[in-house]
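Lab notebook page, bench 4
Experiment: in silico fold of construct C2
Operator: M.H.
Input chain length: 201 residues
Purpose: comparison with the prior construct
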Amino acid sequence: MKYSSFNLNEQNQKIESRIVVSLERISEAFRVLLWNESKENSLSPIQIQILIFIYYHSLEKCKVGYLADEFNMTKATISDSVKVLLSKELVTKETDPIDTRSFSLSLTNEGKKIAKKASFFASSIEHPIEKLTQEQKAIMLNGLLKLIYDLNNSGIITIQRMCFTCSNYQIDNGVHYCKLLNSKLAENELRVDCPEHELRI
């Protein structure tokens, strides 16, 4: 019989269970911080996340379909959030000149202002990480990247723009290498969200 990670006896016996519960606690911190930020701006958490995403990503990624995959939500849910952002004049539609039925989203000046400020909502989580040694940070990053990669492969997480899923990435005898940068990568240089990412087919 398989036990739950939340079963205290299981937690005390398996480090994997303690890691799962630790990640769940951290996810609660993200939810609280994001909720506080969204309340301050009279927006929902996903609307704040959409604004932040648009602020830092290229126009071709700022389409409803891409955002739905990015946040693991339906197009209808994202469309409802986008309608609110449009009505509040925080985003505008940029029509695709090739396909006039398609559009990307860009931020208005007010949208940029809110997105920039909101993008620091997780800074209180980053501060404790700064206190770790470089070795601890590298081990943590590598472990998290492998976890995200496996979750992506199993279909739990959809879009990923990380080194492990990029056609420019290769690893040989434990040495990470980027063909685009034509350079070796230290473990602490592996990227979670790379603007030059090209999905490996």
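Observations: The chain has two domains: 1-131, 133-189. Residues 69 and 158 are 6 Å apart (CA to CA).
Next step: discuss at group meeting.
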